[in-house]
Amino acid sequence: MTDATLVLNAGSSSLKFALYPNEDGSPSPILHGKIAGIGNAPQFSARDAKGNTLPPDASMPLKPCAGHDELIPQLLDWLQSHQSGLTITAAGHRVVHGGRNHATPVRINQALLAELDLLVPLAPLHQPHNLAAIRAVAAVIPELPQVACFDTSFHRTQERLAQLIPLPRKMTEAGIIRYGFHGLSYDYIASTLPMHLGERAQGRVIVAHLGNGASLCAMNKRRSVATSMGFTALGGLMMGRRCGSIDPGVLLYLMDNQGMTTRDLEHLLYHESGLLGVSGVSNDMAVLQASDAPEAREAIELFCYRTAGELTSLATANGGLDAIVFTAGIGENCALVRSLICERLGWLGVELDPDANIRNATHISSTASKIEVLVIPTDEESVIARATYRLSSACT
Length: 396
Ligand code: AMP
Fold this sequence. Notes:
Layout: E1 2-10, E2 15-21, E3 31-36, E4 43-48, H1 68-82, E5 86-95, E6 106-107, H2 110-117, H3 127-140, E7 146-150, H4 160-163, H5 169-173, H6 183-197, E8 204-210, E9 214-220, E10 223-227, H7 248-258, H8 262-271, H9 274-279, H10 285-290, H11 294-317, E11 323-327, H12 328-333, H13 335-344, H14 354-358, E12 372-375, H15 380-394
Parallel strand pairs: 1-5, 5-7, 8-11, 11-12
Antiparallel strand pairs: 1-2, 2-3, 3-4, 6-7, 8-9, 9-10
Helix pairs in contact: 1-3, 6-15, 11-13
The structure holds adenosine monophosphate.
């Protein structure tokens, strides 16, 4: 009988899952998969450790329009039937927002859930789904230990100035501060830096997590010093559909002169802006790269222009720059974006090796580059698995 930890990453339209063996170190998943199309026509896919496709079973097909509360019991049934000889001892969840109090993962109880409910307005796209998944697991297996791993935790090492927003002090005291996100990804990358950079891992590194959501994190001694996202996952870099930081006067103008409500603005800023809004073609970088439309090229150029500018600002916050790491869907796969960003950083002494860059090699800077540039695939699930195993076994 093998004991295993279930990892769940519940988003608005997808549920990613993975099963990890309960082992110390960095175990590989026994299986991993995804239910995509949630809220519409959910589709199930899963693979074992060797990459073989695992079939759905009698508890499938998944109900159309089913939410996490209905799909998670089906997933748990599937896991039981496909993994006989395996016991799930704990479930770990990606939870986007942990507020200012949680600098580490925590065991979930009713009081914590009530606290995390209060943070839903700060992460309306993600937090409700993260919490729905926790409640759905508890409804099926109430005795199963569950652990919340927060995307905000990694940034709680930042000095106060990096977390302040220049609004009246009473608003800071009420929690309107820069929390930062993508912390599980940054945590994973930080753990791999010594392997790739040796002693330079302890230096000034900026990690560019460039996916559908995008942010930068400046690290010193592998701890977060500053990050581009702030109060919500809307700030900082331009993203697939999100605008990133904009002049707040634009919002006042749209409300006063175009009659937009807060709901209209929410839709505009979270769903209609970014790469999609600027290109009018797609939010997907691979689609934009393949497009002949000049607007698609302009969207890519703007994405890179703004990322390079923000990166320079974070290097200042960190007192210099020794290495840049690209990660997530765009960062790991899009040589064009990496080269456009690094060209703009040429004045800092950044220079790429074009062949290595095209190959998505790990080390992509030239031998003449003053700053090392790397591509490291991220792995948020393994961070959740390790923390969940550690916390759940500590309490048994
Ligand atoms: P993520 O949110 O990390 O899954 O990243 C999704 C983004 O990565 C989308 O914009 C994809 O188009 C982009 N992406 C993935 N693979 C490629 C590729 N080969 N070339 C360009 N963009 C890619």
